Amino acid sequence: MAKSHIFPRAFAHDMRAGAAKLYIASKNADRYEFSQSGPSDGNFLCISCEAKLSDCDDYAVRWIRAFDSKATDCFKGLAKAVPNPKPDLLVKFASAVLWRAATAPKTASPDIDLGPWDFQLRQYLFGNSDYRPSVCILQLRWTVGGNYVGDITVQPYRALLRGRRTYLFDLAGFRFLIRLNNRGNAPEFSHQFRANGQNPLLVLDLGFREISEDSGFMSIFTEIETALRDT
To answer: What are the DSSP calls for 79-133, one per residue?
Structure first.
């Protein structure tokens, strides 16, 4: 079996920026954990299947690292246009992150259960399928007291967006939105803002947001502070 990371290890190394470890916390856990390379699991993917995801992992790492140098402002600064020469690899990457998180025993939970779409994603990632979920990418950076706190990664979770089931995760200053059922996409999943088939890709810029405005984040940070006081 392969040790499969929910997010590519390269992002964890970027986030550490020379520090010895990362904090991994959850609102459903009673304590935080330390990690050097991010959440992973070695009990659900064989080496051959893990290798089939290396192309999209590598592409996403290169695409995100080059974003600031290659993106150009458009729509009066509300969005950015960035080259995306292999759009299917970016869609595959978002799908792989979601599928890993939903399947790995260490991270799987009813909150991200894929239901009947699990089979479709498996066929897309590891087989030969024409199915593609819809993927939208937004730029979003988190602050505390107005100060940018650096990259915060949020593992995939499920939410209702305009009444439709959507899966989201945050990574390296970006928010990925994935809709597995492509029928009747909402405006934010319109053709021009989807990663599917788009080169260049339009990325909406949501700017900066205070962590205190997000109740989910605040509950996690409160638990970390409590744990630190008790140690």
So the answer is: EEEE--S-HHHHHHHHHHHHHHHHHSTTT--GGG--TTHHHHHHHHHHS------
